[in-house]
């Protein structure tokens, strides 16, 4: 079987304060997402979110329902967002083909029964990063490119956080139930993301870091604003961010990350800011 999954349970700030380094990583860090010939998924009980990767090699890969869903097919009660972080690949949704280049996205609504992943060059495969959340209604499948995205420039080189935010799967671009996804690209010389830090108690989030050089790393910060923790991360790794946690990072080089979130509020600007000087 090419589909593998693991489950992570929700935890409170009180519990997380007591975790050592390895325990913190076990709870929130997601590794091994991009393995050739496999689909690897992590099901978290924070908003029943799923983050994963599909890397089709010489054979195509089919997205199958995992046991925790208790469903006949994966999208029976879910929606799906996909961003390609590898070479060109094709996604077949109930017989309709969508070809995604590097950093292009696809939204697939509830009710689609068969999702198949293919690589155009099996030696240099596509790497499909997947996010999924429960859905109450089915919306049309839509491909999103840089030309369709809502693009925002934020930060400055003076504060080491000049970055481009590409809003790909958001309400201004495509209709969804609760899933939102986008991609933030740090400019050369900038290393800080998501500053000033914030929480949004009405939705959780998952960060996926990529374009991190092999000999470099990103330090991801989480926790309550007055009780922060950190997790060192490598290329193609993801981290779960609970609703009560900040989510920010600083790299030893520039990098790119994909943010995905779900919850009861689709307002991108719904954030409770934490002043940088107040972080502890």
TrEMBL record:
* Cofactors: Zn(2+)
Q: What class of enzyme is it?
A: isomerase
An example Gene Ontology molecular-function term: 4-deoxy-L-threo-5-hexosulose-uronate ketol-isomerase activity
Q: Which gene does this sequence derive from?
A: kduI
The name this protein goes by in its record = 4-deoxy-L-threo-5-hexosulose-uronate ketol-isomerase
Family stated for the protein in its record: Belongs to the KduI family.
* Residues that hold Zn(2+) according to the record: 198, 200, 205, 247
Query: InterPro entries, alphabetically?
Result: KduI (IPR007045), KduI/IolB_isomerase (IPR021120), KduI_N (IPR027449), RmlC-like_jellyroll (IPR014710), RmlC_Cupin_sf (IPR011051)
Instruction: Give the residues annotated as coiled coil.
Output: none
What EC designation does it have?
5.3.1.17
Q: Give the pathway annotation.
A: Glycan metabolism; pectin degradation; 2-dehydro-3-deoxy-D-gluconate from pectin: step 4/5
Q: Which PANTHER family match?
A: 4-DEOXY-L-THREO-5-HEXOSULOSE-URONATE KETOL-ISOMERASE (PTHR38461:SF1)
